[in-house]
C-alpha cells in the first residue's frame, strides 16, 4: 500500500483541511524544543474528537505506520519528534476544557487543551492545577501527562502524576478508547494504569481526555530572593530551609551567568558579582506566608547569604518571575548549541553535585551554567557548545556524559522532568536494571503489539 | 515433589525457627481483617532479608507453589489470604527503618516496618509520612504500599502512591530483587513501575524495601465537630467547605449509630438524636489553622449544622479521634457478620449517594451504618447481617451489590482504599473495561510468568 492511500484514509477520517502533506507543513512538526533532534513525518493529522483518533490508530495499526502523538511540541527530550516518520498526530484541535467541578476539586479536559488556558479557566473559580512546566504558554495537558512534566512548584505540590485521576486513551491493542481510573482521589481498583500511561511518552496509546485533580488557589503568595557568593552554598541553604520545617512552593537556583542576563534583559539591579541567587515562592494563608517568609530569610542569612529581599507586592513578584523565565530562556540561546541537562539528585547532595559539575566543565575548558529547580534537586546544568565545531561538540558531549554519570553516582536520576525521549535513550542500558527495560518492552507489547506508537523512544532496540 | 521437600528448602533458606508448619500456627495466617475469607497456607515463612526472599521466590517459581506475601494481616479485602494455599511469606521480621533523611524529606524502610513505629521515628525528627490507614498499629509499609492504602488524612495529602519514591521488590521473572524508582520526587526515567507495583496487591512480586517521601510535621492541628439533623446534609456541608477554598486534613462522617456508640464507649455527651456528625482536622501554621477552623465552623452552620465545637487542646482532640476510631471499630462488631463497603463517589454526589444507600437498605428491611472519609467521598456503608442466617445474609449481599452498583452509577469506584483482593473480585468483570482486565493479566505475566504471586486475586480466572 502506497503512503498516498494512508493519506487518503486520513483525509476520509479527519477531513481534507486537517491533513497536511506539503514539505513546508510537515517540517513544522519535525522537531520539538530540543536543538538536536529532527525527523520529518510523512503526514500530519489534526483529529477533532476521540472517534477520529480511534480511526487513525486503527489505520496506523492495520498498516504498520508509525504514529507519534504531539501536543504543543514544547517538550525537551525529542519525545514528540517522529523519528521513524509516519504520521504526526497533533492534538491541538481537541482543546476543550470539558468541565470544572469545584466541589470535587476536579476538571475534565481534552488532551489538546493548553495549560495556560486551563489555568485561566481555573483561576476564575479560585482553583489551580499545580504542575507548572515553564512551557505553559503552549504545552498541552496531553503532552504534560505523557511526559509527567514538572516545574518549579513541584517542590511543594509534587509532579503531574500526582494530579491525574483518570485518562481516556486510544489503545492500539483494544482498537478503541479505554477509560482508566476515575474522578476520585481514592481508587484502588486493580493496577494503577493511569500512572503507567502518565509519563509513557506516547508509546502506549493516544491520550484524548484526562480527569485532573485540582487544589484551591492559595490565598496569598510571596516571593523572596537570597544572594550568595558561592554556588554550592546556595545549595546548602536549600537543605537548611527544609530542615527548618518550611516547604516553599518554589525554590529556583540561578547562577552568575543568569543573574547578569537578568540584569541586562529585565533591568534588575542584582549584584553582578553574586555567584548564585535563590528565588523562593511561599504560598498559603496570608498569616502563614508572612511568618514563613521571615523564617526563610533568616535561614538563608544563617546559611551565609550576602543578602535577602522580598517582593513588595504581587506585581513586583510577577516581574521577578518573568525575569527568571527570561534568564532561563537566555541560557538556551547563549551559544549555537546548548546541551541542557535535566538530572535530579537528592536535595541533600546538591551542593556536592554542583561542585562536581562546575569542576568537570572547568577541567575540560567548557562554559556551563547551573540553573534549576533547587527545591527538588532538579538541576539543568547547561553546557555551551556549537554542533558545527565537531571537536568542541564532542568534548561537550563527553562533559554531559560525566555530569549524568555523576548524578547517578550521587543517587540521582537521568531525567527529572523532561523525559527520556531520544535525548537520554543512550544512558538507559548502562544506568537501568535490565529487567526494568525488558518489563517496559513487554508492557508496550500489551498495549501496542505492532509497535506503532511513537517508536524508537525511551529504550534502544 | 512432595510439599515436605518445599518445607525442607524453606528451612535451608530461612532457618528452622522461621518456618511454621503446624496446623495451629498456619491457622494464624489463614485470614485477614475481613470476616468472610479464610484459607490455610501449607507453610509460613519469615524471611530475615532480601536475599532470603530471593531464595524463597526462586523456589516457589521453580516448583510452581503459590506464594502470598503478608505484612500485619490488617487488610480488609482478603488480599493477604492464601486462597490457593502454598507459602505465606510473612514480612514482619524485616522491620527496620533503614534511614531517615530530613534534608531530602525521605526515608528508606524494610517492607515489614510497622507504620506506627515509623511515625514514632519520624515525629522525633519533626517529619510525617502522611498516609494514615486506621490499622496503623499493625499495618506494615509493604502491605500499605501493596494495597495503596488511604485513611482520613488523604483529603489533603492524597493516598499512599503519592508518597512512594522507590521500591525494591523481588520479581519472579527476574529471579532476584530489582530496584524501581529512586530517592527523588522528580523522576521521569521510563514507565512508572513504582506506581504499577504500588496497589498491585502482592501479585507482581515481593516488596522488600521502599523509599518514602515525607513531609514536615505540621506546626499546629485543630479538631472540630459539627452536628447535623440529617445525614445527607452533612454530605452537603463537605462540598461547601471545599467550595470555600479550605482543604482540611481530615473530614470524617459519623452517623447516628456511631454517635450513640461513641457516647457509650468513650463517655462523650453528643446529642443522641443527631443524625450525623462531621469531624474535621485542620493542620498547618498555627495562625492559618485558627482562621481556617473559624471558617469551617461558619460554613457548617451556614450548611445547616445544629451546632459546632472545637477541641480545647491537643489532648482533647486526641481523645475525640480515639473515640471516633472506637466508634468505627464498633460497627465491625455490631452484628455477627458486617458487610463493610469501601466505595468512593465524587464528593459532589455524596449527599445523593447517602440517600440512595439508606433508601436501598430501608426498602429491604436491613440495618446499615454510613460512616467514612467524607472529605474524599470514600464511604464505608456497613450492612449488618449474620452469615449463619442464610436468607438474611443473601438479602444483605444483594443490598451490597446494589450499593456498589449505585456508586459506579454515580461516577464512583468499587474500592477507595481497601483493594479488590477477594472481596470485590466478582464486580470487576461487570464494572471494568475488558481491556483493563486483559492488560493486568498480561502485565502480571511479564512479572510473574508462572503465576505464583498471590494467585486468585483481583480478577476472576
Per-chain topology:
Two copies of one chain form a homodimer.
Chain A: H1 3-14, E1 19-20, H2 23-28, E2 43-45, H3 50-63, E3 67-70, E4 87-90, E5 97-101, E6 106-110, H4 115-123, E7 127-128, H5 141-146, H6 154-157, E8 164-171, E9 176-181, H7 193-197, E10 206-213, E11 215-216, E12 220-228, H8 231-243, E13 250-255, H9 256-266, E14 276-284, H10 286-302, E15 307-310, H11 314-332, E16 337-340, H12 350-363, E17 368-373, E18 378-385, H13 390-409, H14 425-431, H15 434-447
Parallel strand pairs in A: 2-4, 3-4
Antiparallel strand pairs in A: 1-2, 5-6, 6-10, 7-11, 8-9, 8-10, 12-14, 12-15, 13-14, 16-18, 17-18
Helix pairs in contact in A: 1-3, 8-10, 8-12, 9-11, 12-13
Task: Give the class-level CATH name of the largest domain in chain A.
Answer: Alpha Beta
Low-pLDDT segments of chain A: none
Report strand % of chain A. Answer: 15-25%
Major interchain interface with per-chain residue totals: A-B, 90 and 91 residues
Largest sheet strand order of chain A = 5-6-10-8-9
Instruction: Please estimate the helix content of chain A.
Output: 25-40%
Task: Report on the biggest sheet of chain A.
Answer: 5 strands, antiparallel
Subunit arrangement of the protein: homodimer
The overall average pLDDT of chain A, rounded, is: 94
Distance between the termini of chain A: 26 Å
- What is the domain total for the residues of chain A? 3
Give the CATH architecture of the largest domain in chain A.
Answer: 2-Layer Sandwich
Number of helices of chain A: 15
Total strands of chain A: the figure is 18
**Shape, per Cα inertia axes of chain A:** globular
Rg of chain A computed from alpha carbons, rounded to a whole number of angstroms:
22 Å
Estimated structural class of chain A: alpha+beta
CATH topology description of the largest domain in chain A: Uridine Diphospho-n-acetylenolpyruvylglucosamine Reductase, domain 3
